[in-house]
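Entry for N-carbamoyl-L-aspartate complex. Fields follow.
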Amino acid sequence: MTVMRHLLDTQHLSRAAALEILDVAEDMADTQRREVKKLPTLRGRTVVNLFFEDSTRTRISFEAAAKRLSADVINFSAKGSSVSKGESLQDTAQTLQAMGADAVVIRHGASGAPRTLATSGWITAGVVNAGDGTHEHPTQALLDAFTIRKRTYGDDSRGRDLDGIRVTIVGDVLHSRVARSNVWLLHTLGAQVTLVAPPTLVPQDVSGWPVEIDYDLDHAIAAGPDALMMLRIQLERMSAAYFPTEREYSRRYGLDARRLDALADGSIVLHPGPMNRGLEISAEAADSPRSTVLEQVANGVSVRMAVLYLLLAGERPETEREDAR
Ligand code: NCD
């Protein structure tokens, strides 16, 4: 078993490490089908959920994952904490260290905050990025890859990558850490990635990404992708007008019933949630048998169990702990 020190992004995650997480997640998913879902694996370990940004499913998912491994969980949300009184990330981190945190799951509005925490020397805990600004959201990409692999290979998934699978990611790529994490991970696993968005929502640095760009959703659907990943329009991150009206966006880039029908047999529809029904995705698409939205949520717990397990189970060599300080 590889021991992971932190999970900060997918850009630097190797194929072997990614497959190990996905395969351990398969084992975790098997345990979640049992009547008693709780495993004793992380008894005595403490996981802190440190959320500086709103989140429902990601925080609950990490909490469920940690509890099912019998870890103690401390939920720390920035609202109502000393952070709103101006306490710095350093002071917060040092408080967690003094409380004996073994892993810190952090969501932060600033891109790079998890790396700062991991490399600062303020804490010895392993750090998991649960979404930082518009940078990355690695466990989301891992649960998406797990979901695509499971729908493609079923019980035969273990050990397989996504070689040759075509994934089209649609929507607000500019503001999406989910898109960035998916681009890197899908590429590492051998998938072919196409991004579809209005020109205003395509990031400027995209020329260095291993993707194709298409500005026309109907054209991209006609190409017959195996998976279509719809992104949420992140109105809270938009300081300017990136499209004329919501109606116009929906008409050109929304997954409506007509486009759903045009998808090739067997292709699936993903969405990380929370969905803006009627904007980027219609109710027909969200609730159709092609939609994996609820599978993604369930798989998210298994994937986060795998990540916490690989981070915390077993003994970390003392030297590695020293190095990381
Ligand atoms: C995503 C996020 O917060 O980055 N959601 C999530 O983790 N479930 C995507 C989004 O907010 O659109």
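NOTE: The chain has two domains: 15-137+298-323, 138-293.
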